[in-house]
Design a protein that fits this description.
Layout (H helix, E strand, L loop, with lengths): L2 E9 L5 E8 L4 E5 L6 H16 L7 H10 L7 H22 L3 H5 L7 E9 L2 H13 L4 E6 L27 E3 L2 H19 L4 E5 L6 H11 L6 E3 L9 H8 L4 E3 L6 H9 L5 E2 L8 H13 L4 E4 L7 H13 L3 E5 L5 H6 L5 E3 L2 E3 L12 H4 L11 E3 L5 E2 L2
Parallel strand pairs: 4-5, 4-12, 5-7, 6-15, 7-8, 8-9, 9-10, 10-11, 11-12
Antiparallel strand pairs: 1-2, 2-3, 4-14, 13-14, 15-16
This protein binds D-mannonic acid and magnesium ion.
Length: about 400
């Protein structure tokens, strides 16, 4: 059996997505997601010029060997572009293998460890009162876990505050828009938000918060400590993780559970954090971290240390990634939670899928493969539009982590 062709499909049903379609000489095809938010065409060029020509003629059943070929064979290792390109190939090959087996993908991983996958939604508001009402709406929709982000008085467009009730799309402009940040103000406002939420909703709902890499290790430790009475499910990306040792400071000072990994590409990014038990949840994803083949290795390493998964699931990961993630989540023994930002209706139409939301959980379908396809005719109606993620500047003009 041979790969007879492959091509990238770029579309923008509300936001940009890059999809890889791999064809085989036996007529079975597979689909992978290669979206890198705000840098999409970099991955398209990498796939078109440097991956697809090598794939043609390869045996699609040799998923591991193809992975090693694309990783070791490139000589230049890691990085968001390379690893997303590899992830797209990996997703498509697992899709093909599962279709050939006539089984849903989770069966090939070892079968289900659970019936359904708990997800968390994003509640945002311009201030604490609005965020609190947004949390109420998610609870009404059945969510058992909600991430809460609030605007901060005096700060322009603080991270996480979207425009619609259910959708949050930060990549919003043909040139990066400029947002603001003020750590001192956030250190006061964020604990007030969770005090308000616990007073209103009690402790039965899981609450999460994303620091989006904005705090120094010491500030992150202060935030974690201040949030302890409100028993968060996790505090995410409390400080930048390029230097994993930074988490020693945070960990020494707080018992608030810590989650990291949406920007990780490989097991090497997570190794110190996992082996030193500096985090509680690893947020690497199928798309970001080289596909199912590699994410499985990260999850296995994490399981040695009782660290659980919490896959990134923002809308810049297409329904193809969500489909793969749900098969992965249904199998992985050390599952924690799955992020679920709803895709727009247009995205859901372009990517027909068989997973469904029920009572705060997602359930993957039984279709052979990962259960997600792309309607190319429809996709063609939504051409690519350049869209950047914002940048952040402090009040004095200093560029900060968005
Ligand atoms: C966020 C993301 O979902 C999250 O936790 O951190 O929304 C992130 O900002 C986007 O994926 C960036 O593209
Ligand atoms: Mg995040």
């Amino acid at each position: 059996m041979k790969i007879s062709g492959a091509r990238t499909i770029v579309c923008s049903p509300g936001r940009n997505f890059v999809t890889l379609r791999i064809e085989t000489d036996e007529g079975v095809h597979g689909i992978g997601d290669a979206t890198l938010n705000g840098r999409e065409l970099g991955v398209v060029a990498y796939l078109d010029e440097h991956v697809i020509p090598c794939l043609v003629g390869m045996d699609p059943r040799r998923i591991e060997d193809v992975w090693q070929y694309l990783y070791r064979g490139a000589y230049w290792r890691r990085g968001p572009v390379t690893m997303r390109a590899i992830a797209a190939v990996d997703m498509a090959l697992w899709d093909i293998k599962a279709k050939m087996a006539g089984m849903p993908l989770y069966q090939l991983l070892g079968g289900k460890s659970r019936e359904r996958v708990m997800v968390y939604g994003h509640a945002n508001g311009a201030d604490i009162a609005e965020t609190s009402d947004a949390v109420a709406r998610y609870i009404d929709l059945g969510y058992k876990a909600v991430r809460a982000q609030t605007g901060i008085p005096g700060v322009k467009d603080a991270y996480g505050v979207g425009r619609g009730a259910l959708y949050y799309e930060p990549a919003d402009a043909a040139l990066p828009s400029v947002t603001g940040w003020d750590t001192a103000k956030a250190l006061g406002e964020v604990p007030r938000l969770f005090e308000t939420l616990r007073a209103r909703f009690g402790f039965d709902v899981h609450l999460l918060h994303d620091g989006h890499h904005r705090y120094t290790p010491n500030e992150a430790a202060q935030l974690g400590k201040a949030l302890e009475p409100f028993r968060l499910f996790w505090l995410e990306d409390c400080t930048a993780a390029e230097n994993p040792e930074a988490f020693r400071t945070v960990r020494r000072h707080t018992t608030t559970p810590l989650a990291v990994g949406e920007v990780f590409n490989t097991i090497w990014d997570a190794q110190t954090l996992i082996q030193e038990q500096l985090i509680d949840y690893i947020r690497a994803t199928v798309l970001g971290a080289g596909g199912i083949t590699h994410l499985r290795r990260i999850a296995d390493l994490a399981s040695l240390y009782q660290i659980r998964t919490g896959c990134h699931g923002a809308t810049d990961l297409s329904p193809v990634t969500m489909g793969c993630a749900l098969h992965f989540d249904s199998w992985v023994p050390n599952f924690g939670i799955q992020e679920y930002m709803r895709h727009s209706e247009a995205s859901d139409e372009v990517f027909p899928h068989d997973y469904r939301f029920e009572d705060g959980h997602l359930i993957c379908g039984e279709t052979p493969g990962h259960g997600v396809e792309i309607d190319e005719k429809l996709a063609a109606r939504y051409p690519y539009r350049r869209a950047f993620l914002p940048v952040t500047r402090l009040a004095d003009g200093t560029l900060w982590n968005w």
